[in-house]
Amino acid sequence: MSNKGRVKVGIIGSQFEADIHAESFKILPEEGEVVAVASPTPGNAEGFSRKHGIPKFFTDYRQMLADPEIEMITIAAPNSLHAQMTVDAANAGKHVVCEKPLCMTLEEADLMIETCRKQGVLLMYAEELFFTPKYVKAKQMADQGAFGKVYMVKQLEKHFGPHAAWFWDVKRSGGGVLMDMGCHGIAFCWWFLGRPEIKSVLCHMGTYVHGQKTKGEDDCICIIDFANGAKGVVEDSWARRGGMEDRIEVYGEGGVTYADLHMGNALPTYSEYGYGYAVEKAPSTKGWTWPVFEELWNYGFPQEMRHFARCVRRKETPQATGEDGRVVQEVLYAAYRSAGIGGKVMLPVRLKGIKRPIDLWLENRKV
Amino acid sequence: MSNKGRVKVGIIGSQFEADIHAESFKILPEEGEVVAVASPTPGNAEGFSRKHGIPKFFTDYRQMLADPEIEMITIAAPNSLHAQMTVDAANAGKHVVCEKPLCMTLEEADLMIETCRKQGVLLMYAEELFFTPKYVKAKQMADQGAFGKVYMVKQLEKHFGPHAAWFWDVKRSGGGVLMDMGCHGIAFCWWFLGRPEIKSVLCHMGTYVHGQKTKGEDDCICIIDFANGAKGVVEDSWARRGGMEDRIEVYGEGGVTYADLHMGNALPTYSEYGYGYAVEKAPSTKGWTWPVFEELWNYGFPQEMRHFARCVRRKETPQATGEDGRVVQEVLYAAYRSAGIGGKVMLPVRLKGIKRPIDLWLENRKV
Amino acid sequence: MSNKGRVKVGIIGSQFEADIHAESFKILPEEGEVVAVASPTPGNAEGFSRKHGIPKFFTDYRQMLADPEIEMITIAAPNSLHAQMTVDAANAGKHVVCEKPLCMTLEEADLMIETCRKQGVLLMYAEELFFTPKYVKAKQMADQGAFGKVYMVKQLEKHFGPHAAWFWDVKRSGGGVLMDMGCHGIAFCWWFLGRPEIKSVLCHMGTYVHGQKTKGEDDCICIIDFANGAKGVVEDSWARRGGMEDRIEVYGEGGVTYADLHMGNALPTYSEYGYGYAVEKAPSTKGWTWPVFEELWNYGFPQEMRHFARCVRRKETPQATGEDGRVVQEVLYAAYRSAGIGGKVMLPVRLKGIKRPIDLWLENRKV
Amino acid sequence: MSNKGRVKVGIIGSQFEADIHAESFKILPEEGEVVAVASPTPGNAEGFSRKHGIPKFFTDYRQMLADPEIEMITIAAPNSLHAQMTVDAANAGKHVVCEKPLCMTLEEADLMIETCRKQGVLLMYAEELFFTPKYVKAKQMADQGAFGKVYMVKQLEKHFGPHAAWFWDVKRSGGGVLMDMGCHGIAFCWWFLGRPEIKSVLCHMGTYVHGQKTKGEDDCICIIDFANGAKGVVEDSWARRGGMEDRIEVYGEGGVTYADLHMGNALPTYSEYGYGYAVEKAPSTKGWTWPVFEELWNYGFPQEMRHFARCVRRKETPQATGEDGRVVQEVLYAAYRSAGIGGKVMLPVRLKGIKRPIDLWLENRKV
Question: I need a labelling partner for D3 at 20 to 30 A (CA). Which of A42, A278, B2, D87 fits?
């Protein structure tokens, strides 16, 4: 590794998130470039490499880790594989960018953090909301005092459910919509408020619409009490029709702001005939739709990847780390347990031996 | 009483809500007319009668109740007086319209219902959201199957706190924002879903901004589980800057709708100079504002009062009754208790001897 | 005629506009009631009377005019019949409410005004925008000085074209979208600005989408210079997809306001299944739609009819008269001529013998 | 010049637009870098170079043109200097990026185009709307057939007037708001529709609010007829209160889309205290505001400058050229003349010897 020029990146994965990683480095190419991809499914890595113009491809990610040119790995694989891949990458001396949620269990989180620390590599947590331009502007205003003391932050993320089959199988996913999208909201509230200590979590969830498809929750509200006296509210749904929703609300004693990533940025559009692409999970391009523009940029993915590449070059300090991911993981534990017992759960959570966070709801459900 | 012509109405009260009652009968005058007003404060009733062109005024509401011309009483007095006034009016043979919340305790609610039943008069509960045209349209669409099975209904009501001093004193108000505005949301969710049995209540509240002024909660989220499998979400705040917010969200497996009474109906307006009136609780009429038009009509107050007058003439059956108010009262008990214990409270609530609903939070606060 | 109680109304017509008249008196019944309807099409008047609970029906409107009980006639018939019907009604001693546009020619307008004057009956012009609550609020703010001196007023009205066949035939309609909907915008700007003298008209029009169906213009922009230094802008279209649009913009040196009657008041709604009714001319009730609530009230029709009934009882002075309709007619002449010659037309317009306003465009088209 | 690596850029100017150029290359640095700046005002170039980290600075732009390292010049100087600077730069062998409007007269435009052609350098016209991501998305949808045949395109740009004094002096500016901002709308409509032949221009303008400050028009509507049967509408104002407006409307026989750069992308925000920065020309950061995020990116400036740098490296073909600027200039002539004579002006315009486009209005004003 030269430690100069653009950071050489290898991607593990070839699906939705892997595409986002590859496209992001194309949009902001000056700090990093993707030089390899690994995917076990026959043909996937090769197809992906052709599609994105990536020189090398592998079916075994361990082979990719052996390539001395690669400096940073991004993990866009199912949740249950994150821990092992991170450990392997760290042991191969690569910096790691891991998709959300960080992993399945707190024990895994600790192992990932510890291994990267020992190997002297960075463990970066791919929470793009920390880089979403519209949300960053909200935080800047808050930090400038626009709202006085902020007492409530809310993040909502809703659509009609994921496309990939494994999300619906709680054995593979570890949980439903809270696990899938609530991890964003938990991270967001914590980050927005300046990472204060978390006191307790109160969560309400249920399977309202997709009960025939999944045991996982498809709608939830999660309320987090912070030690600084503020609360965070996370609302998620896999049961909301009409397309994607991703928005925040910020309440302070001196003001309020709202930021809507989709309808709030889009072009209100009516088409009899339809057109190419509206937005992730849009039900149609006919009738009234809200097409997105520069989708990845407005989410903040390219800015996030550029930041991670700069971190590898020591130009910046990671703003989203394994420790952040671990906090989210602990809140996920507390939230599922809260939903199970129908009451508040205080932090820290000292539960061990949990296999899947959702079990804390499913197996303890009293109400 | 002639039992013909327009229903003769007497108002108890001379403030904000009493004004709304008087104005409402002027907007839709064909079924009812205000013929008397009673207020104990010297001069208030007379001034009110002059302002609204009402023939008779009284300082003692009991004197007004003795007037044989009057057929229906509307109560726009502090919560703690509702029960006694209702009982007195019923015993005088008058139909009763009582403002929200119905009263302070479940025992009072039972007494009010029972007395009116015995006296053969109607006890009507002034929940105007049942008549709010925009919300009625949402319910019509739901009932027409637009959203398939509705699994979540949400109502939000937020501003920066009431003007009258007694709201801040929990001894006089019985509670904070949940008591003041949450009673609307509770009634709304129950009504919208077709009055299903209520299973349990989970509530989170706090005093975030106005702690120096009140012991009452100034921000809360209340989640109601209904026996039909749906949930209701009630969000209220006395800590939200920027003016009044009153809106609903309806989620079904087949669709979603949103209705915003204020920004969603208003005229986006910028004025350097200001103007007469924007909307209830607007912070200013300069800069950007959202002035309301036909405020009472858009809330549904005239339609509500017309309906109540028609009920007295037996042209219609009351759609908002003392029983509705009692359900709300029970949920208020459950919600304050839930916030106190930090967990779900199952219904029915069998608590007796409670003086003020908020005591169930303040005195049992564990978390 | 008793000259007391509710004004007795007879409607000429049985279609879209006649329905609005009948429904409007039901919504605000205290000042007027419909007692008769006349329509030449066999069965129509009878069906209409049954549908709306109207006691009398006629196939010949002249017979209805002979009924001494009737005090006020509303004309909801094709434009070309307005003048004769008005003259007949006036000669029968009835007050007249005439739908927009007032008539076909300036000569007709003069005859209508003169005949009503001579017979001592009121000629009221059914421009409901003068009563649209949201627009009235905008005018109130302007009159309160919110915007300082208003220098521009804009009214837009757009959809994908009328349903009835006769609108497309310029021989029967007298013009396209300017004649059909521009008459609203012209009246609106004039009224909003306080009825200042009109200096000149500049108009651009074309047949962009429906050329195979009509010779009439289906899209236009009309700019009116007023003697007080302000301008009015009227934008109309029969070629705009996605449903109905009706909105205004008001610009003053000290501020600005916007009022949108449809999307700006409606409930943003997504439905997989559809539902009863969204709004006039909505393309569908599936997908994303903006259903209206209390459509007639929000347009101001009931308020308008109540006002007209009050005028008959001399409780109010007509705020929309034959003279208003004549001004609109003169601007229509000027606008079609302007589009024909491609330049400004100064008022007053002294053209005589015009049969249809649109001929001033079609027959003089230079550009 | 190496013809490799990042294109070396010199900026002429040190104010508002020059800042945008410098910031844009920082946001997307991989294709171009600013190496020099020239400004005649003592100290300005040096200050600018320090602020943006630019190695070289000059008080005489001709000296900068002598620097062999510089490959591309961007001109952010007053309109009246564009032509001479372009000619000088071209003669020095530099590629030229010229801000809008291209120049003052058609003769200047011809000279600029011809000189650059002869010298073999690119003349690129800095119309950022061709790169505005939201508008680009609208064009993509149109090109994909979303709206069928597009018959009308509208672009609006409004605020309360420019800050710099020279804009108000028509001798220095050449015109008012049409010259200043209408050049964007003219370019936009033409580009959006695929650069069809322009048939005629009809324009209405006036000085409504700022008559004591300027002879220039502060509000205008300009309607362009294209040979393909579509029309373009350009609305501009220096008299609109409430902040910046920049938006488009696209109408086709099969659909419609709207794109709002400011309110439509921003965070609706209320602040008692204010904060750092809302958006260009915002009247305040207190009360309700619509703060922008990533302002330059959302306008498309960095994407535009990256494109121009790529053009210099022959990786892309210029999408905004001197020829585009000349078309705009011709429409400006036609529009001012149209406003002067109160009628349509056919293209091509063969007027010579015009000093300032606005003279065609001021000196020929008949109406």
Answer: D87
